[in-house]
Every structure is written in structure tokens, then in C-alpha cells.
Amino acid sequence: MARFFREILFIAALTLLGVAFSLFSGLAPLPWEGSALAAGEIRPADARALQVIWIDVRSEADYHNQHIPAAIYLDDDHWETGIIELMDAWLTQPRPIVVYCGSEHCGTSKRIAEHLREALPDAEIYSLKGGWDAWLR
Amino acid sequence: MAAITNRHLFVLLARLALAGVFVTAALPKIEDPVAFAHSVDAFRVIDAGLSNWIALCLPWLELVRGIGILVPAIRRASGGLIGLLLLLFITLHLSAWARGLDISCGCFGSETGHASADYRWLILRNLLLLGAVILVLKQDRRNNIKDSCS
């Protein structure tokens, strides 16, 4: 039994070494560095759990190349058709709406989400934290 | 003699499978603890602060146990810890399934975005791994008894 506990201690020590490496090596962003949400943002995992209506505001080529299943394409040039499609989906089954652009650093999703909040004041509207890149990860 | 050889081969394969699964599961999570923290959060069992620390520590524990199951000096404790964690994972999956959560498992890091958990498969996979752990632990116990007798 003493040997078993020595093994456990050894495993714990190795694990702590690994954790220290993650903490101090800068190998990857630490969880608490990437977890802060700005107002109006939602994480991919939470959006997935909520069964939302997705709005894709990347380029048309990116949308046609690949998009989240059932996502509605929306941009300034296709605003009318996109908003009609969105209204149709939302009125049929009211759900939160999540807007996504390409990455963490694109601002289009936040801008479009703002426009949508004005157009649909009763809807729950978010922008996806990390955008399409975060969805793919 | 042939039966003993076969059993040893079977146990070795079980060890290699466990090592492969746990090392493969650990590496992407070590590379991207932020995404793993989101997966832990999605189970809605613990608060965000604790899930961040779990996302940082658990992948290293998985890596050490995955390698440890092949290292004679720590393989018994590694096997025991793997078994305990598999039981915990099975409980978590059952709980998420019962609550109707539509989440990706996060078992091998952040899986492709639209991959929702197939709870039946996840639980079956963990039960199979648990079976492999029991096989390995039984063999270790047999070896210990043999060592203490000789």
C-alpha cells in the first residue's frame, strides 16, 4: 500500500511539473486569459447548447465554401434578403440569434449584431466569441 | 504456458491501447487549454474558475497516466487513477445526457465545431477502456502476489 501511495505522489509531482510548464512557458494562452466575454458575446460551446439561429457575416465566398449548418448569410449588400430569411426563421421558432465573422479579431459580427438588435428589439442577439476560427477548433 | 503468453499479450495490448488513448487525448488539450475549459464549462457542473484549473491540470494528469501505464515503477497507480477518472467521465456523460445537454465531449481536445456528443458511444467507449484498466490491474495484482511468494 505504501508503494501505491509513493506511485501516486510521483504521478502528482510529474503532473504539477507539467502544469508549471503550461503556466510559465507561454506554450498556449491560459484558460482565464481567453475566457473573458465582452458584452453581447457568446462562447461556441454555449451557443451550441442553446440551438441558436446562426448568421454568417463573412465573405460570400467563405460562406459558400463552408458554413455552420443552417446558417443564414447576411451582409450589407444582401441585407434585405438576409433579414427576411432571418425573420422567417425567428418568427417560426423564436431562438437566440448568434452572428459570426471570421476570427477573434474581426469586428463585423459585433457591428451586424448591433444592427440586428435595432431591427429585432425583442430577439436575444449575440456575436460569437472567436468567430469561425473558434467554431472550427 | 501458451495461455499465460496469450494473457500477457492481451494485457500488453490493453496497456498500449490505454496509453495511446490517453496520450492522444492529452496533447491537444495541453496545446489549447482555453478550448478545453469551454468544453468543461459546457457540462455545467462546476463554476468557470474551477473549470479553468481543471482544463490546465487534467490534460497533464492524462499524459502522465497515459505514459505511466507503460512504466513499471508507476503503472499500478496510473491504472488505478485511469479507472477512477473513467468512472468520473461516465458519471458526467450520464448526467449531461439526463439533462439533455447538447455539447461536444471535449475528450480529445476541441472537436470539430458541430460535433455533438453521442452519449451512447461515449459511455460505451469509456466502459471498454474501463474493462481494459480492470484487465491490466488484475494482471498487476497477479504479478505482485507472484513476486511476494517468490
Explain what the structure shows.
The complex is a heterodimer of chains A (137) and B (150). With 137 residues, chain A is of the alpha/beta class. Chain A has helices spanning 2-25, 31-34, 44-50, 60-65, 79-92, 108-119, 131-136, and strands at residues 41-42, 53-56, 72-73, 97-100, 125-128. In chain A, strands 1-5-4-2-3 form a 5-stranded parallel beta sheet. Chain A is elongated. By secondary structure, chain B is mostly helical. In chain B, helix 3 packs across helix 4 and helix 4 (75-98) packs antiparallel against helix 5. Chain B is elongated and about 50 Å long. Classes of the chains: A alpha/beta (137), B mainly alpha (150). The A-B interface holds A 3-4, 7-8, 10-11, 14-15, 18-19, 22-23, 27-35, 43-46, 48-49, 51, 68-69, 134-137 and B 30-39, 41-42, 48-49, 51-53, 55-57, 60-61, 63-65, 68, 73-74, 76-78, 80-81, 101-104, 110, 112-114, 116.
- Share of helix of chain A, binned: 40-55%
Secondary structure tally, helices of chain A? 7
Strand order in space, largest sheet of chain A = 1-5-4-2-3
What fraction of residues of chain A sit in β-strands? 5-15%
Low-confidence stretches of chain A: none
**Globular, elongated, flat, extended or rod-shaped: what is the shape of chain A?**
elongated
Total strands of chain A: 5
The largest β sheet of chain B comes out as: none
* Unreliably modeled segments of chain B: none
Average residue-wise pLDDT of chain B: 85
Helix content range of chain B: over 70%
Count of separate DSSP helical elements of chain B: 5
> Distance between termini of chain B?
19 Å
Question: Per DSSP, what share of the residues of chain B sits in E-state strands of 2 or more residues?
Answer: under 5%
Oligomer: heterodimer
Shape of chain B: elongated
